[in-house]
Amino acid sequence: VQPDAPPSEPEEQARPADPPVKEANPIEEARRRLKQQILSTKRKFWLKVAAFAVLPALLAIAYEGFVSVPLYEARSVVIVAKASNTGDSSFNGILGAVGASGGSNINEAFMAHEYVLSQTLLDDLENDMSLVSRFSSDEIDPLRRLWDLRLFGIDQRTQFQRYVRSSVNVQTGMMTLYVRAPSREESELISQSILNRIEKRVNLLSDNLFQQQVLQAQAGVEDAQNYLIETQGELTRLQIESGEADPQTRVAGIYESIAALQADLLDIETQIESERIAGRAESFETERLNALRIGLEARIDLMRRQLVEVDRAEQDRPLNALLLDYQRAELEMEIGQEALSIALTSLASAREQAALGRSQFQVVVPPSVGDIPWRPRPVASGFAVFLIGLSALSIVSLFRR
């Protein structure tokens, strides 16, 4: 076999030439790379959205739909009113519509609110209904179960507000109670039990308050009575020691006698002066008048000394001093009588307030439960988790720039 002969020149001319190699366009290359970078960025973004928002939202929807235990909310409205306007509160609101003849007692409403949030109510419900133990067991899903995490500062009392909470309207004084339980009947039963306990607590606080006021008023009456007895005893003692039933009358009589004697003395002195002017200064009549004048002056001096000097045989103090002590004792007795009168009025007022101003616990709206459970709500929970995930993704992206 002979080798092929080389092609002839015409054949070489007839074969087409190889196409020329095109050089890479830098603009097209940059566009290609930019598109790839945009696609990669979008892919990463949607992966982050899926990881931060979509997947948690789907998990939340799945948990709410298949794991979460239904909770029914019972809502009730109560008011702590007064039988009469004996207090200082002016929050009347729509009390005429709820049957209260007085004003709302905003202080007692907040006391009831604090009692709902207290450990006392939690312990009472646990002792009577084992409510805390049940809400800490498998009857409740893990997320809403009552956990006691002391390491993180979380206790059952703080978490119990998920199931029992209240709010107070400061304009009307009404308190709204919210109770959540796995069934409609149980939520109504727990609500009624809590309302009964609130009523007992409010009545107990009101009774204690007015009882303290009545006891204070009674103590004031006893003090006034003791003071009056003491002042009356002091007055009687002065009368016995002095032998004077009414020193004021005796002293007044002495002053009246002195005034009358001074008038007689003035008249006699006038007659003596008339006799002297008439030239009968040495007459018998003038001597008689002088003797009368001397006698009157002696009597006046004796009466005055009775007022300021002590007669050791009859008394240990002057009549003026005895009169001052007697008047002071009388004044103290009058003060005691007035104090007793005021104390008796205060006692009557305290008893009236205890009878008419006692707080009244009224249920405006009894416990009512809707047909749809308060929880779970898969769509709302999933949407909320989705928005939270988007917010978290935005924060992370902001700090990574």
Q: What keywords describe this structure?
A:
single chain, about 400 residues, alpha+beta, four-stranded antiparallel sheet, 12 helices, 4 strands, elongated
If you had to describe this structure to a student in words, what would you say it looks like?
With 401 residues, the chain is of the alpha+beta class. The chain has twelve helices and four strands. Strands 2-3-1-4 form a four-stranded antiparallel sheet, covered by helices on one side. Helix 2 runs antiparallel to helix 12, helix 4 packs across helix 8 and helix 9 runs antiparallel to helix 10. The longest helix has 59 residues. The radius of gyration is 53 Å and the shape is elongated. 19% of the residues are buried. About 4% of the residues have low confidence.
Biggest β-sheet, characterized?
4 strands, antiparallel
User: What spatial order of strands do you see in the largest sheet?
Assistant: 2-3-1-4
Which band does the percent of strand residues land in?
5-15%
Instruction: Give unreliable regions as ranges.
Output: 85-102
> What level of helicity do the residues show?
55-70%
How widely separated are the two ends? 77 Å
Number of helices in the DSSP assignment: 12
What's the average pLDDT?
81
What is the N-to-C succession of helices and strands? HHEHHHHHEEHHHHEH
